[in-house]
């Protein structure tokens, strides 16, 4: 028989994402709804190992839904990769009477969560929080929509100066190994070309072809969105390559960087975070473990963490077509 859950721990782990506070808030308020205690853990798994815990009640999360970052702070924790670190974490949770855990983070955080849960038979539920949107099993992750809007706003501004000077701008956006931000923000910002890591033919060769085409069709300035990561060259190398091989272009580089991780979450991210936070506590109270809450076709779903970690997402072909046709 599974043990009755009466104290739930919540932590944020990995890179922060706008909307994480809204997710913590939802977890805390769902605990209030079920009349179970809630404990916040500072700095992800590091806080578990350091025993850095705080009691949270419904009022502790007032005025947090609109705030970027995570008030519980976050970290990437190497000690939790080792059995010794996980044992300390388990002992601390046991001492505090916490008997279930909600982990808000990305796939690295879920890998740790799964290992921990299996090792100690400890109920764990994940909530996808990362601007990258690179999590298998959910259509959207918390923070992604806000990051998209930040990128579009920045590129709109870059467009003003690009068109005033007839310049070519290479704009690097985040996404580690995923092109979701680049592709969707690129379409939204009307980019001329979008280079993403998922497709090998979306590197420099494709950019050159696209520039040749633009020249023929009379474009005078261009915005190229480049996803960080594996497009073969980074933006600075691309600029140098273009300076050498296409000296007729006046090329500038703009790296949007960590600005994409900050700011007040959009309404879409707040709603998503609230749904997933409450769904996570529902799942634990219904006896689920080792699952992630997600949304598929706007329905709340629970997905086995093992499936989440398979990492076999594909970029949507239809979006590639939209990007191509809308930039002709
Ligand atoms: O995973 C989120 C993310 O923002 C990636 O897009 C980016 O590659 C990485 O984190 C940056 O990490 P850090 O904040 O450690 O530099």
Number of helices: 11
Largest sheet: 7 strands, mixed
Average pLDDT rating? 94
CATH class descriptor of the largest domain: Alpha Beta
Order of adjacent strands in the largest pleated sheet: 3-2-1-4-5-10-11
Globally, the shape reads: elongated
What is the H/E order? EHEHEHEHEHEHEHEHEHEEHH
CATH architecture level-2 label of the largest domain: 3-Layer(aba) Sandwich
Structural class: alpha/beta
Each distinct ligand: 6-O-phosphono-beta-D-fructofuranose
Find the CATH topology of the largest domain: Rossmann fold
Number of strands: 11
Number of domains: 2
The span between the termini is 62 Å
Protein described:
This protein has 328 residues and is an alpha/beta fold. The chain folds into 2 domains: 7-143 and 265-308, Rossmann fold, CATH 3.40.50; 144-262, Phosphofructokinase domain (Rossmann fold). 42% of the residues lie in helices and 18% in strands. It is built from 11 helices and 11 strands. The chain has helices spanning 20-34, 44-50, 83-95, 107-120, 144-165, 180-188, 204-217, 235-245, 267-285, 305-308, 317-326; strands at residues 7-12, 37-41, 53-56, 100-105, 124-128, 168-173, 193-195, 222-227, 251-255, 291-296, 299-304. Helix 1 (20-34) links the parallel strand 1 and strand 2 (37-41). The longest helix is centred in the middle third of the chain and has 22 residues, at 144-165. 46% of the residues are buried. 6-O-phosphono-beta-D-fructofuranose (F6P) binds at residues 15, 106, 130-132, 174-176, 228, 261. 6-O-phosphono-beta-D-fructofuranose is lined by residues 15, 106, 130-132, 174-176, 228, 261.
